[in-house]
Specification:
Layout: E1 67-71, H1 76-88, E2 92-95, H2 100-110, E3 113-114, H3 122-136, E4 141-144, H4 159-187, E5 190-195, H5 199-202, H6 208-228, E6 233-240, E7 243-244, H7 247-251, E8 263-264, H8 265-278, E9 282-285, H9 290-298, H10 300-310
Parallel strand pairs: 1-2, 1-4, 2-3, 4-5, 5-6, 6-9, 7-8
Helix pairs in contact: 1-2, 1-8, 3-4, 4-6, 9-10
Amino acid sequence: MFDRLGRSEGRQAHSLLSAQTPAASRSPSRAPGRQPPGRPPGPEPAGPPAPSGAPGTAPGGRGHRPVALVTGASSGIGTAVAEQLAAEGGWRLLLSGRDEDRLARIATRTGGVPLAADLSDPRARARLAEEALAHSGRVDALVAGAGIGWAGPFTTMPAQDIDDVLAVNLNATLHLVRLLLPGMVRQRSGRLVLIGSLAGSVGVRGEAVYAATKAGLTAFADSLRYELAPSGVRVSMVLPGVVDTPFFQRRGAPYHRDRPRPVPAGHVAGAVCRALRTGRPNAYVPSWLALPAWLHGAAPGLFRTLAQRFG
């Protein structure tokens, strides 16, 4: 899709076009997401011409800007992804989040279309996919960034909180992929970028359910890669450690460990943009976190000993 910020090819769209995806059948539910002022409903026109023969170019030399749907866009990593994609250019952005006011401000800032949705609600997931396809006719990339947390001993975790974390972090992503993937397969191109976590690779004390949802996403992505190998659709996991976002305040337990240190959300957004561009399967943020993930798989006993000692 795009190269690093500051490089000349960073503003060319990658090969995410072809036949348009038909909209899903409309389900009787709540009203669709709001349109920005002055923008009529329905598919947008194609973007400016791309150089002939460039990735993302239709026959005849005219390119269409690919469409990216970013969930969790009203805060944290999702906001950073929307801002970075807007800065790099070349994308038509559909932005989803629960906070309608904040989402509308971010959409105005990035030129995206706000599609408010509470992804813990199964009906909202179906409606979001329907609205995205109805608005743009296709979704070329899904960045699944919506997520919530809960911290504390598992024995004290309320049943409803277990259901909520599973619903937002795991179930919503699986269902959105199920709804959007057929169109990508038909057009033989697409990107799925799932925001995982180091917690899903190694487990974290006090975050058992959160870690389980992220491990589930990793296994889901691995399995999909086998299924989609001949299809032209790439599946990537971006696996951050601790990120400096409001996530910890919202879960009710601030981050207090010395290691690993929080990284800015923009670093994770950079990894997402690279994944969209290259289709790289896994990217840890920061990259050195691949080492504990490797050690956990190669020598789990040693890893557990070190984790118990150093926390």
